Amino acid sequence: MLLFLFRLLSRLPLSVLQGLGRLVGRLVYALPTKYRQRLRANAAQAGYDSPAFARRAAGETGAMILELARVWFRSDDSLARVRSSPEDEAMIAALHAQGRGVLYLTPHLGCFEITARHRVRRHPLTVMFRPPRKAVLAPVMQLARESAGMKVVPANQSGVRAFVRALRQAEDIGMLPDQAPAEGEGVWAPFFGRHAYSVTLPARLARQTNAPVVLIAGERLPKGAGWQLHYVPVPEPLPDSPEAQATLINQTMESLIRRCPEQYLWGYNRYKTPKGAPAAPGALPSGDAA
């Protein structure tokens, strides 16, 4: 049923889908829920504390969700609307020319699904898939990603081994840097001036395979015009400690998010303490805030 609904929605023009998504997003935000409180608190933590910003951000979250129908099931048309600068494409080509696979980190910013589809058309790409909390979405997401030509691996040790093999074969991989990892798979590191339990896998893979780490996002353009890709490489070499590595990646991610902050998923519970994880350290000094 859900697959049928997404295919049906994909027939709508992109501008209509995004506009409808913004309307739904703002309506959901108008309800007095924990989601509304969390969105406002997380945005304010980063310095975006106006109610108008929060409403726009909620609208963009709605657009992020509904545009997936078009991205997943009208892929060729969607990819034709992607803009990527010659300078950024040359940067990635130069990394491949060195015989290195690229480790892409795609935060929940703009249309994060379009980035992988754009990259896999140019170079082999493996992505990690963690089933969503709503199980009904899992088969739709899995089908959509596999049909795009990318290799999909599970979020476990088997998937990690597949990532290592891909990078050693100079292929690219992609993963999310802003999901709270499971117990033992992260460290506490500053994110917009507050400690967030942050993934350590990207840095471990990069150091193990000499892969460059590049943050990438697809900024949603007005009036259904498509998406502008942004690339921000993480400075090399990476620091030695996991905490310093996670801090550097989070800082790089912050700089990317600030390019189009209203399109970030502020409603995600980024500052939660995963079950079994150590308690977060004390408050950061005020100078570390965004």
Automatic annotation (TrEMBL):
Compartments, record wording: Cell inner membrane
GO cellular component terms, A-Z: plasma membrane
Alphabetized UniProt keyword annotations: Acyltransferase, Cell inner membrane, Cell membrane, Membrane, Transferase
UniProt cross-references to Pfam families, sorted A to Z: Lip_A_acyltrans
Keyword Nuclease in record: no
A biological-process GO annotation: carbohydrate derivative biosynthetic process
Record flagged with keyword Cell membrane: yes
Annotated EC: 2.3.1.-
One GO molecular-function entry: acyltransferase activity
InterPro entries membership: LipA_acyltrans (IPR004960)
Record NCBIfam families: PRK08905.1
Protein's name according to its UniProt entry: Lipid A biosynthesis lauroyl acyltransferase
